[in-house]
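Request: Could I get any protein with tokenized structure?
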Amino acid sequence: MGDALNVTYLTFDGHVEVTKYRYVYFCILCTVYILIICTNCTIVYLIWNHKNLHEPMYVFIAALLLNAVVFSTVIYPKLLIDFLSQEQIISYPACLFQFHLFYSLGGSEFLLLAAMAYDRYVSICKPLQYPTIMNKTTVCVFLILAWFVPACQLAVPTGFSAKEKLCRFVLKGIFCNNSLYKLQCVLSQARVIRDMIILVNVALFPVLFIIFTYTRILLITYKSSREVKRKAAQTCLPHLIVLINFFSLCAYDVIIVGLEPDFPKIVHLIMTLQVILYHPLFNPIMYGLKMKEISKHLKKLFC
């Protein structure tokens, strides 16, 4: 029975003095989770409810915010349960499921940002062709691919990990991320290559595409009128800030967590919380305050 328990369940070892501060942790993160749901869903509601926001750019923003809500839901409920539990444990299948959703939704974020960059590129660089190119079919295809492609690609490492033998059962973190690989007995070169290919497909290629499209936008607007420059800045700047923020957090998760430097546990916990806390709250603030049409509806809603 004891051996079966060790094989089936993993223990999280990333919490800091959880017994002493469990209620503080719970109250803070529960408040943050409610804020994430309320802020993101408010903007999604505004986009859904106002016909002048039924444009591809705003549809992609709504999809991005819904993605953030689902992303947070993958992490927060389990995290809140752990704070109130005597032992912070998770079954291995549940851990793999959380791992798969965490990274597939992260990949969806990059692809949605890439779709938004393409939308801005067509709008600014090819305005006469915009209604033809960015029609409802194109938008639907982009949305389906943004969620379908990462989910399918991440199913491969998740499936292989389910078959791997575990030699350790203590996870150095507070949720299931790529530190899960450290528990496996064998770290094969084929797995590293496979994961690098997936990382390039769902993260690096979209980022390079975004850089290319915004470079093209910058070159065209540089020679345009002041009004065109202002419009480009209003719509493109929030996307770029969100991309830089999310890419930085993902770089920490992929590189730093993988290398496991000798950080104090409290530093590791704070940096890990940035991935799940900062970004889902950052998106609605950026799009709610920086996007003129959304900001206008927000003022009407609350004033």
